[in-house]
Amino acid sequence: MTTVAEAVQLITAQAKSFGKEKISIDEAYNRVLAQPIIADRDYPPFNRATMDGYAVQAADFLEKGMNSLQVLENLFAGGVATQQVTSGTCIKIMTGAPVPQGADAVIRVEDTRQEGKTVYFTTTASRAGQNIAKQGEDARKNDILIPQNQWIDATVMGGMAVTGYAEVLVEKLPKVAIISTGNEVVQVGQEVQSHQIRDSNTYAIRSFFRHYQIQSPVTILAPDSKTALTEAIQSVLDTNILVLSGGVSKGDADYVPEVLQALGVQQIFHRIQIKPGAPLWFGTLPNGGAVFGLPGNPVSVQVACRLFIEPYLRTCFGTRLREPMLLPFLSQKPKKAKFDEYFPCKIVTEGAISGLVSLRNNSSGDIGATLGSDGIALHPHDTEMLIKDTPVQFFFW
Amino acid sequence: MTTVAEAVQLITAQAKSFGKEKISIDEAYNRVLAQPIIADRDYPPFNRATMDGYAVQAADFLEKGMNSLQVLENLFAGGVATQQVTSGTCIKIMTGAPVPQGADAVIRVEDTRQEGKTVYFTTTASRAGQNIAKQGEDARKNDILIPQNQWIDATVMGGMAVTGYAEVLVEKLPKVAIISTGNEVVQVGQEVQSHQIRDSNTYAIRSFFRHYQIQSPVTILAPDSKTALTEAIQSVLDTNILVLSGGVSKGDADYVPEVLQALGVQQIFHRIQIKPGAPLWFGTLPNGGAVFGLPGNPVSVQVACRLFIEPYLRTCFGTRLREPMLLPFLSQKPKKAKFDEYFPCKIVTEGAISGLVSLRNNSSGDIGATLGSDGIALHPHDTEMLIKDTPVQFFFW
């Protein structure tokens, strides 16, 4: 039976870009760059004052022992000096302004006292270059400031803006469809009978995709009938990613694998060595898209989104996978299954280093099992007991 | 001068809810609950089979030594048994179906072989309750499943859906305005002269708010003139949160504090013991809203969003603050400033436990300083050298 690592490998091997598109920087947050961001000029673009103060020649203090200078003019950010700093003179300068010709240091305004056109220094320059960000010290013109396939977070947005990318090439988003299966499943707004449950998986899966800016997947609720399933799946064969929940286990009404294959979906694997979520089914659509058949219980669905659909999506986008952290486990936990076991944990900071505690978890069907968790930790198949202070792999949601 | 902890306290003391509103569950992702989510019935709502198999009386195996039973009927999820399980009989049952009356255990289909109406067991029940999720074991009717003011992530979305909250009361979002100041600052799409720089702060700040579902703040670019600043600020006095960047330090054109106060904005503090970002200004609008005057350099802006605006926002929403983790520092770092110093770090997993390495960081004006970082770590003011394996406070972006 396929291991978790093998499953991830088989899944990511099917990944391919959904194409590229040019969008406005205003829409780019949480998308993925399909081009590198190149420095259009040196950064800083000029020798920039990093403090409010006086632009001076350091040698006036270090070699000539002066303690006062003549102020030639006031220079603001966004301005350019009309004069040159020479020995015995200085220019009052504000943070962000270009250091005038002739000057090689800035003395903070806090260390000075100006009277008329003369400034007296209570502290003097200790070296040339003081309080100056040198042209090109952060990046050189034509440097790759941000590599292609970088995830566009707030830091990347800032870098794109400063280098003038009002528009930017990004990875296209996939078309996604979610089919929640089961005769017992009813829609959230509908009345529910005592032997039925409401559909929660669609909402959990949709939230997962929402994080990736995929706003409106097609969602379908399908009963456990071959006809209904066939119809539902047929209507979304043109998607890039199809996620089903339920119908992939060993029950007599678990028609999902059979119906998928009848519709030309190619099975890559069925069942893997994991708890929860062993019945996982994965295959490819006739158009090359991916099909994830998840078991129907809510914990399995959330675990599979994080461990399997996320790596697929990020590989399609060409962006690096989110690796697990290694953190000390602060509870004790006996082994419950023969497979690798993933269980919801919360980060707590009690001792010198933050660690993990496991949460109450009745079963993989427990509707509250993941509430309040920060992610899932791995209890490896070959470890009988997770004892306190064991380092464990931890996957943030 | 105000410490970081004092600043956070002064800021959060001004926080108040932006009101509540009822929205569809479809819009609720990454919002904050303004009501608790109550279990509308027991969960599970019935004794639920957690495996595909046979619903039996455990005593038939444990006490009566049987190894085959008569199959009365097949029961699917979403169905209800028409008969009762008695000694010597069983009902074939699928995962998710309600366990029929009389049965108290489920034997996995993998451990059986059925011939006609008789099923033979290769493994038998080891206890009553086996493979059954008991009614109410996850939550009891009227239990608070999810407390008020919880952040609505994928796990909470699932909980809301299963309990039938098609609509839900959430905390309203604030009206936000961002004013980027400076004569040297030009808009991203505009031509930039050699002594000018493009506005990146607006994009970084807007991305920060985007994470909180605040999509379209008012954004204004204002030059360093009292008239222009007055006009810009006056136009957004009705917002809940006003963020300015630049103009709060000691330069001769740093008019922001003066103009704010002339417009009736009350100063709570100016300047705090932090690097980068010491000139931070905080006050309250006449309408009770908050004004953050951030220093103009990009690293300060990102640090201030994380350390000061985020706690304000989360306190307004009534949701818990994101506490720093304690992680081992894997580099070495000498002290650069007399204040608490926050510097960009990346998480790396080399040894037994994940730790932090600091990134290249020329200065707080470095446009690339935070690129590739996972967050910021604290170098406390009273620690000369951060040596390898010191636990440090780490704040995820």
TrEMBL record, chains A, B:
Cofactor or coenzyme needed: Mg(2+)
CDD domains: MoeA
MoaB/Mog domain location: 177-315
InterPro entries: MoaB/Mog-like_dom_sf, MoaB/Mog_dom, MoeA-like, MoeA_C_domain_IV_sf, MoeA_linker/N, MoeA_linker/N_sf
Pfam families xref list: MoCF_biosynth (PF00994), MoeA_N (PF03453)
Keyword NADP on entry: no
Protein's name according to its UniProt entry: Molybdopterin molybdenumtransferase
Family the entry assigns: Belongs to the MoeA family.
Catalytic activity from the UniProt record: adenylyl-molybdopterin + molybdate = Mo-molybdopterin + AMP + H(+)
Enzyme Commission designation: 2.10.1.1
Function comment: Catalyzes the insertion of molybdate into adenylated molybdopterin with the concomitant release of AMP.
Known pathway: Cofactor biosynthesis; molybdopterin biosynthesis
Native source species: Rhodocytophaga aerolata
Signal peptide: none
Keywords: Magnesium, Metal-binding, Molybdenum, Molybdenum cofactor biosynthesis, Transferase
